Amino acid sequence: MQPRKIKTKVMSVLAPLASATIFLLLWQAASMIVSSQALPSPATVFKEAIRMFSIKIGGNSIWMHVFYSMRRVLIAYFWAGLLGLPLGMYMGWNRTFDKIVKPVFELLRPIPPIAWIPIAILWLGIGESPKIFICFVGSFVIFVLNSYIGMRYVDSLLIDAARAFGASKRQQLFNVAIPASLPSVFAGVQNALSTAWMCVLAAEMVGAREGVGFLILQGMDLNKPAMILVGMALIGLIGAILAVMLRLLEKGLCPWRKELV
Amino acid sequence: MHTAEKPAEHATSPPCVPGGKKLETVREDEAYIRRAARENWISVVSFLLFLLVWELVCRLGIIGPFQLVPPSQVTWVLLDKLVDPNPDGALLQEHILTSLVVALTGFSAAAVIGVPLGLLMGWYRPVNTLVRPLFDAVRPIPPIAWIPIAILWLGIGLWAKAFIIFLAAFVPCVINSFTGIRLTNPVLIRVARIYGASNWETFLKIGVPSSVAMVFTGLKLSLNAAWTTLVAAELLAASQGLGYMIQLGRRLSRPDIIIVGMLTIGFTGALMSLALTAIESRFASSRKLN
Question: Is residue A10 part of a domain?
Fold first, then answer.
């Protein structure tokens, strides 16, 4: 190996370590300057993390909170994908259908999913269903939009070629247009999950007795910043794991996507 | 070696290819547009039908008045809110103004700090290696998760909300500026260097202008994120603003107030993205003239 390459390799290991160390040091310094009540030191947060994993908070262990949030997200995500993907694709494929659905969709689209929380609570009470509904709204819109755009931007040359070779309308759709729209669809699949994850958080913070959103809100009510920070780290970690899992899935399902990036 | 990150695309914009150039809409040739325009009546009819069904569902008592109100009443309440501060203590335009001030404060701070940071990260490797791990550590945390700690730190005033919105808008600004400048055509860079431009000059004259499209995409995403996050922040802690208004509507079981609030939130958000698109197109056309 050339010395230059070795140097780059060493740097790529050292630099993140260095910046992590600097970050921790700054954090420590900041927590000593402002009161430790507002910003606990890294060590305190670490201890709090260990404590939180060993006790029950609000009657549930931390794993159960994660489980509750995940269950809401996944149920909503499943239904949003099941309904949203075909709807968006068909809107992109059939102009008349597009014209019919578009106005109502365009009216509802700019409303952030979080703005649905009050009416969802009014309609569905404060049980599981309003939270699932919020996540559903958030990911549904993204599923529809991305599959719609993916379909609209299919190269017409591909469809013309298929038609020239005598493909039926059905074959044009299923063998040409849908595969060609997959990269955009997959961008939506990833986006929808992270949006659903964000929505469940918001919904749980507005009113819930379990879930990760409840966890950090509990930290606020108890005036325990260390608890909030642990919760935030947990939320970030789960979000990152979800994103990585979907990226691996995408690599498996549509490997040609790489060319675009 | 860094790999160019997947650009975060605006939800309604066509897929991007390297170089930031947008793919042409192949299926939207002139004939298609003309034929589509002739069918606009379908949209009008379907929308009217939607309103009619909504009205009937409420009038016939299929859904009770504490769950949903008909569109005619929504219109009435909307007009009424412009002159009557009851029951939430402020006029609709006051709520809008409060929300706009908070959202734009956080958003502008994010744009002013995030865009240059992203550009520098994309151009200067040491900046990237230093900042990136920190950035990557913070990024997966949804901005909404910052709300409790922001309230603990900054109270429930303007600054806590502006801080949360700043965080929400910051991430897309950085990522898109980073990606935009990374996609600068290397030929242009080499030409500038051959003609004796310094690295800093190349950055300013070649790198920054060529990343404008991606930066604007980032700004639009940021604005979206800012607006969404604002609603969340106002739901949890506020005494005025659109999020507060719909939350109060829920407490009072007033679906009319909630629906007016939701529509206003959606409409204002859409209007802001339109404004940004208009700025973008002016920016782009003035650049072409040069």
Answer: no
Here the CATH number for the domain that contains residue A62 is 1.10.3720.10
The pLDDT tens digits of the residues spanning B55-73 come to: 998 888 888 888 888 998 8
* pLDDT for the residue numbered B9: 42
Contact B95, B84 (CB under 8 A): no
Go through chain A and tell me how many residues it has: 261
Q: What would the pLDDT profile of A115-126 be if each residue is shown by its tens digit?
A: 999 999 989 988
B14: pLDDT confidence band, cut at 50, 70 and 90? Answer: very low
The 10s digit of each residue's pLDDT in A130-189 is 999 999 999 999 999 999 998 988 888 888 899 899 888 888 888 888 888 888 888 888
Question: In angstroms, rounded to a whole number, what is the distance separating the alpha carbons of residues B110 and B176?
Answer: 13
Which pLDDT score, from 0 to 100, does residue B125 have? Answer: 86
| Residues in CB range of B158: below 8 A, 6 or more apart | B101, B102, B105
Is A91 part of a structural domain of the chain?
yes
Q: Where are the alpha helices (DSSP H) in chain B?
A: 30-38, 40-59, 71-81, 92-123, 125-138, 147-154, 158-182, 186-194, 199-202, 208-210, 212-236, 242-251, 255-289
Q: How far is CA A12 from the centre of its chain?
A: 28
Q: Do B211 and B181 contact (CB within 8 A), yes or no? A: yes
CB contact at 8 A, B82 and B91: yes
CATH superfamily of B69-289: MetI-like (1.10.3720.10)
- Residue A179 distance to chain B (closest CA, Å): 15
Residue A14 lies in a domain: no
Phi-psi region of A223 (alpha: psi -120 to 50; beta: other; left: phi over 0): left
Please report whether residue A134 resides in a domain. yes
CB contact under 8 A, B262 and A229: no
Name the residue among B183, B201, B176, B199 with its Cα closest to residue B115.
Answer: B176
**Alpha-carbon span B120 to A155, nearest angstrom:** 36
- Look at the block and give the residue holding tokens 């260390």: A226
d(CA A2, CA A10): 13
| pTM summary value | 0.84
ipTM above 0.90, yes or no: no
Q: Which chain A residue shows the shortest CA-CA distance from B138? A: A236
d(CA A260, CA A187): 12
Pick B27 or A150 by higher pLDDT.
Answer: A150
Domain ranges of chain B: 69-289
Name the nearest CA neighbour of B98 among B273, B274, B268: B268
Q: Residue A112: which of B131, B231, B249 has the nearest Cβ?
A: B231
Show residues of chain B in contact with A95, CB under 8 Å.
35-36, 39
Chain A, residues 53-112, CB within 8 A of chain B, namely 95-96, 99-104, 107-112
What's the number of domains chain A is made of? 1
Instruction: Give the containing element (helix H, strand E) for B61.
Output: none
Average pLDDT, chain A: 87
